[in-house]
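Propose amino acids for all 238 sites.
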């Protein structure tokens, strides 16, 4: 058992998730770093624990219900509660052109970006309910926002593609509906912005640390809001 807040971050062996894990641990939380690759997950947790931070690897492929259930069981036994869940794991998929996209192209991406968040949230709900201020942050994308896509000033308005943006729009609605259904929980979505990570061949313009900051701010906020979408500038439209 620990008195420190307990956090779980999915897809945290690299990129934005790893930075979120590092920053939450720097706030004194006990952080469970989820990764589907055991070696890379263990290595990341070891590196992040170097300065006495409490970062613990958990094997976690969010498309594997048995692994999700195992994490819920383990954290129930270790802590009896979870304060913070960061649904960060995400994939861009193969990104075929719009006219070439088939239903099959959606399956693998939805399985991670949407259903992964459902599996995690559903499995951890009983432990989140035990927290004084349960917080869930879903890492979405401006590409999934109608408001951002409709803004000619935003680069997302000029990008094409079906699968990734649709998966993030679905994640946005998931966030909104969970927030409505779960009073007492703080459940929000964050667009981290165009960030230099493996997802885009490290072409993004902000660093993972900069992008993680907005996610961590929401994860630390115990007084609300809930059911909203944020980026580094503040609240933005769905
Ligand atoms: P990244 O470095 O590629 O990180 C993605 C993470 O998700 C990796 O740890 C990856 O694991 C993990 N992941 C993928 N499938 C998984 C699965 N089935 N189970 C568990 N973990 C899985 O990219 P990132 O940019 O940091 O992405 C983090 C989040 O930010 C994603 O949700 C992404 O959509 C979102 N986002 C990123 C940008 C950007 O510009 N980078 C912009 C908007 C939103 P592996 O290392 O094993 O592949």
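Proposal:
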């Amino acid at each position: 058992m620990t008195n420190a807040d307990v956090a779980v971050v999915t897809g945290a062996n690299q990129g934005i998730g790893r930075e979120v894990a590092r920053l939450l641990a720097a706030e004194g939380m006990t952080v469970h770093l989820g990764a589907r690759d055991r070696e890379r997950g263990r290595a990341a947790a070891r590196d992040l624990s170097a300065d006495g931070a409490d970062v613990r690897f958990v094997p976690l492929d969010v498309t594997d219900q048995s692994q999700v259930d195992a994490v819920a069981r383990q954290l129930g036994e270790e802590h009896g509660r979870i304060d913070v869940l960061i649904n960060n794991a995400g994939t861009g998929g193969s990104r075929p052109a719009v006219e070439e996209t088939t239903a099959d192209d959606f399956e693998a991406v939805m399985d991670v970006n949407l259903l992964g968040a459902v599996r995690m949230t559903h499995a951890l709900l009983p432990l989140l309910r035990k927290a004084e201020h349960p917080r869930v942050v879903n890492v979405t994308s401006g590409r999934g926002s109608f408001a951002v896509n409709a803004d000619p000033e935003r680069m997302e308005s000029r990008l094409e593609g079906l699968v990734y943006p649709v998966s993030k729009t679905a994640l946005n609605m998931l966030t909104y509906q969970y927030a409505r259904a779960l009073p007492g929980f703080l459940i929000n979505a964050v667009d981290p912005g165009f960030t230099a990570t493996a997802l885009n061949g490290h072409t993004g313009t902000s660093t993972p640390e900069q992008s993680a900051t907005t996610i961590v701010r929401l994860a630390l906020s115990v007084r609300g809001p809930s059911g909203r979408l944020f980026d580094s500038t503040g609240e933005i439209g769905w």
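Residues 6-236 form a domain with the Rossmann fold fold (CATH 3.40.50.720). Residues 10-11, 13-17, 36-37, 60-63, 88-91, 112, 139, 141, 191-192, 194-195, 197-200, 204 surround NAP (CB under 6 Å).
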